[in-house]
Design brief:
Number of domains: 3
Largest sheet: 10 strands, antiparallel
Number of helices: 4
Distance between the termini: 128 Å
Shape: rod-shaped
CATH superfamily of the largest domain: Glucose Permease (Domain IIA)
Radius of gyration: 49 Å
Strand content: 15-25%
Order of helices and strands: EEHHHEEEEEEEEEEEEHEE
């Protein structure tokens, strides 16, 4: 390599010839000088960095620390806010499920003291492995997600149970399980008997309930009035269609309180006891029919949890 030196102090230019080895050593020297300068700068920086008494360094570190704290606090507030919203949603859903479960318990006739939704469940047990460890935010979020999934599952199952209970309650309301008179006695049961008028063996299609003239006659179940008429054998009668193939009949009435097409509820006053038709005295003749075929009314009355049949007498 040829290097030509030109200067005002020189009368003429000079030429310096460098070999490859000399060029390599010069380049290496420049690199080594740069490296040494960098090491010196690093050593001086580290020396000042460990000297916490340096006011400038302490101010710089405090500013960096404060900025990091602000970032951490902002992130923590965001996480707490998101978790608080999630917890609030879960609390609201639990309250709805508690109310739902309480209503189902009442519908299933479960005693309140046996199945309470407004009490915290009892829990406890020994502490294993010392005091345990703190739960991380990620673990807490996973727990909330799992709780939310379980609540969805329980809500679906309670909804199915409510549907079944609702169907059962509707069916019970349309099955004649309530005695049509509040007080009185059986004077004649369902089945074979000696006819009270001609003294011959006959089949009785219902039950006779002795009660004073004018005693209110109650609907044994909800339904629609399908007949209000007079027949020679039954006298004044009222039929109630329960829309499940069953019909209840109330006969020998002195007066009907309903008309054809009326919707009646279980226990509603629909007529008054009388002695019309083929009778020996005031009483109510009560029948239950399925598609026109007379059935034993006691099979249905025995389902009523408030009505008790005792021999030839009955009471509430």
């Amino acid at each position: 390599m040829n290097i030509i030196l030109v200067s005002d102090s020189l009368a003429k230019s000079r030429s310096v010839t460098l070999s490859q080895t000399q060029v390599f050593f010069i380049a290496f020297g420049i690199l080594a000088a740069g490296f040494m300068l960098a090491m010196a700068t690093y050593v001086m920086t580290m020396k000042f960095s460990v000297d916490l008494r340096n006011p400038y360094l302490r101010t710089l570190l405090a500013a960096l620390h404060e900025e990091q704290n602000r970032k951490n606090e902002a992130e923590l507030k965001d996480n707490i806010g998101a978790l608080a919203v999630k917890v609030g949603e879960l609390q609201a859903r639990i309250l709805r499920l508690d109310a739902f479960g309480d209503r189902l318990a009442r519908a299933a006739n479960i005693k309140r003291e046996e199945f309470r939704f407004d009490e915290k469940p009892g829990q406890g047990g020994p502490l294993v492995n010392g005091v345990g460890r703190d739960i991380t935010v990620a673990e807490f979020q996973q727990m909330l997600t799992e709780i939310s999934r379980v609540l969805d599952d329980r809500a679906d199952k309670l909804g199915v149970l409510d549907s079944y209970l609702m169907d059962d309650r509707l069916v019970r309301k349309t099955i004649p399980t309530t005695l049509p008179i509040e007080s009185g006695y059986y004077s004649s049961n369902y089945g074979s008997r000696i006819d009270p008028i001609n003294g011959r063996s006959t089949f009785h299609t219902g039950v006779d309930l002795i009660a004073p003239q004018g005693t209110p006659v109650l609907a044994a179940a909800g339904g629609i009035v399908s007949a209000v008429e007079y027949q020679a054998e039954y006298g004044n009668l009222v039929d109630v269609d329960h829309e499940n193939g069953l019909t209840s009949r109330y006969a020998h009435l002195s007066k009907s309180m309903v008309k054809i097409g009326d919707v009646v509820m279980k226990g509603q006053n629909i007529a008054l006891v009388g002695q019309t038709g083929r009778v020996t005295g005031p009483h109510l003749h009560f029948e239950v029919r399925e598609k026109g075929v007379p059935l034993n009314p006691n099979r249905f009355l025995s389902l009523g949890n408030k009505d008790v049949v005792i021999g030839n007498a009955y009471r509430k």
